[in-house]
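Sat 14:20. Reprocessing the chain from the morning session after the first attempt stalled halfway. Input below, unchanged.
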Amino acid sequence: MARIQRAELADRALVPSGARTRRDAAARTVLEAVALGFLSAGDKHFHTVRCRDTLGRALWAFTPPVEA
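Finished this time. Tokens:
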């Protein structure tokens, strides 16, 4: 899987960017786990993780799971 080349905070979202595509199932699985790890920390600076490719195109967005 391609490494995260850049990460920024924008509109209360953590936005990691890297050289991957929407069809990359392995990258999506790994980034979802990473996103849920970040979100589980409860940092008030962001409430979602939005992954982008190196051209800034949106790939996936992850939010914390809803607690029952």
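The helical segments are 25-40.
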